[in-house]
Amino acid sequence: MMLGGKVGTNLASSPDVRKKVKTNDELQMDCEATDQRGSNLSLSSSTEGGASAASQPSSHRLTALKPNPEADLRRLVETNRRLRERRNCRLCRQRSVDTIFLPCGHICTCESCAKSIKICILCRKSIRGTAHVYLD
Question: A Gene Ontology MF term for this entry (predicted)?
Fold first, then answer.
């Protein structure tokens, strides 16, 4: 369907289209503003050599947006700590879990603590037997 005359010239001369189409200069200004906002997100205000992030080329400022290795390390250490805690006995919290409760199958206590209970601490079912398990 033709909107009258030449499609290319009619669309390009339309005031609505001209408002929506950004010029190259406007796009460049948007990119620079985005780069500036990105440098403001940087956790440190200076780079190697003491120059500020804003005075560096945009390729250097983009490195400030990359994942923080220190934060990644903290997350890994915290995850490791939580996993080790899960391997600790839920009663004494000092020894590693090494006993499975039968018939429920929960592994949540060490052998010493398992001897002192008759009901599973997780599901409250009666413990009919236990077995030693090797997790490593």
Answer: ubiquitin protein ligase activity
